[in-house]
Amino acid sequence: MIVLVLLGLLALVVGGCACVVWAQRGGPRWARVVAAATLGAGELLRASGKNRRRGLNESDGGGGE
After folding, report:
1. Does pTM top 0.85 for this prediction?
2. Number of H helices, E strands in the chain
């Protein structure tokens, strides 16, 4: 069951990347919407990764309290 979920997620990621390329080349409106959603999701994931790393760094460097 988990394999099917992962395959579905992989299909969404590959489809989103294809829409980004297609929209860049002037694809239809729906491809541009999917591309914007894909890029937005990527930005959210990148920001959450930075915040997570930043939080780990702050707790690891706790000065002599």
Report:
1. no
2. 2, 0
| 40 CB burial (10 A radius; 0-12, 13-18, 19+) | exposed
- Which are the contacts of 23, defined by CB distance < 8 A and separation ≥ 6? 31, 32, 34, 35, 36
Q: What is the mean pLDDT of each run of 10 residues along the chain (65 residues)?
A: 96 95 94 95 90 65 51
The H-or-E segment that residue 51 falls in is helix 29-60
- Rounded-to-integer distance, Cα 3 and Cα 26, Å: 34
